[in-house]
Amino acid sequence: MDLGARLKGRRILITGASSGLGAHFARLCAANGARAAVAARRMDRLEELVEDLRDAGAAEAIALRLDVSDETSVRNSSATGTMGGLDTLINNAGMASESLSLDQTSEDFDRVLDVNLRGVWLMATEAARYWRESATPGAIVNIASVLGLRVAVGVAPYAISKAGVVQLTKSLALELTRFNAIAPGYFATEINEGFFRRSARRGDDGDDQAHSHATYRRSAGTRCPLRIAGNRRLLLHDRSRHSRRWRPSGQHALIPHSPPFP
């Protein structure tokens, strides 16, 4: 059976869904018959997305105002009441602060870690408490990054936070529910558009590595979400428990989409 067909009727909450990968995941889930709750701080963007999903025939699509870095917001903005429960959480919300470390403030560092790492922790533990109290199974897919496994110049807080997401996934998988992570590589979203602009400028100055990243992004950008979609669908449904490719929990998949760092 097609893996996508197994998402039909599943109640899925996607954080950071107002743009980029989050909006893309929401469209894929809805296209495969899932009931999607999209969450972010920008309600105008979410309402436009929900309208698009409904026009495309989504079984159910709702918008939730959510700040993942705010514990009160996490507790109050739950999809469980609106959709009658929750089967899967996609922890996608994220942000970046792009400059050299000595030019960043402690506030810059805290802001990135609060959203990218603390927010994942808050959302994951809140969902796991719901599943424990309701005695129902659930799954969590955390969106990490290639920069959680490798490094680049000018994005230290982001890379540190995403490395934390990889370790958080492994740690909580030992204690709670079915946790896995996806580590997307280099392609354009609102979060990393500044990184690509700088890479293109460095490439013009003869930086071969930066040039290769920018060139690959232009040539492969339209194909990037497709490979992520295949891995994410496998992790979202029950069949992944029996997959030869994936052990039940605590795994991460690198989706590079660019030449690796040397």
Task: Give a topology summary.
Elements: E1 11-15, H1 20-31, E2 35-40, H2 43-55, E3 60-65, H3 71-76, H4 79-83, E4 88-91, H5 106-134, E5 139-143, H6 156-175, E6 178-184, H7 193-204, H8 208-220, H9 224-236, E7 251-255
Parallel strand pairs: 1-2, 1-4, 2-3, 4-5, 5-6, 6-7
Helix pairs in contact: 5-6, 7-8
Number of helices: 9
Structural class by SSE content? alpha/beta
Largest sheet: 7 strands, parallel
- Percent of residues in beta strands: 5-15%
Distance between the termini: 40 Å
Strand order of the largest sheet: 3-2-1-4-5-6-7
Q: Helix and strand succession?
A: EHEHEHHEHEHEHHHE
Question: Which spans have pLDDT < 50 for at least 5 consecutive residues?
Answer: 205-234, 240-248, 255-262
CATH topology: Rossmann fold
CATH domain class name: Alpha Beta
| Rough outline | globular
- Number of separate structural domains: 1
Using DSSP, what is the number of strands?
7
Average per-residue pLDDT, rounded, comes to 79
| Rg calc | 18 Å
Structural account:
It is a single chain. The chain is an alpha/beta fold and 262 residues long. It has a single domain (3-187, 224-255), classed as Rossmann fold (3-Layer(aba) Sandwich). Helices cover 47% and strands 15% of the residues. The protein has 9 helices and 7 strands. It has a 7-stranded parallel β-sheet, with helices on both faces. The relative contact order is 0.13. Residues 205-234, 240-248 and 255-262 have low confidence and may be disordered.
Q: What is the compact description of this entry?
A:
This protein is of the alpha/beta class. Helices cover 47% and strands 15% of the residues.
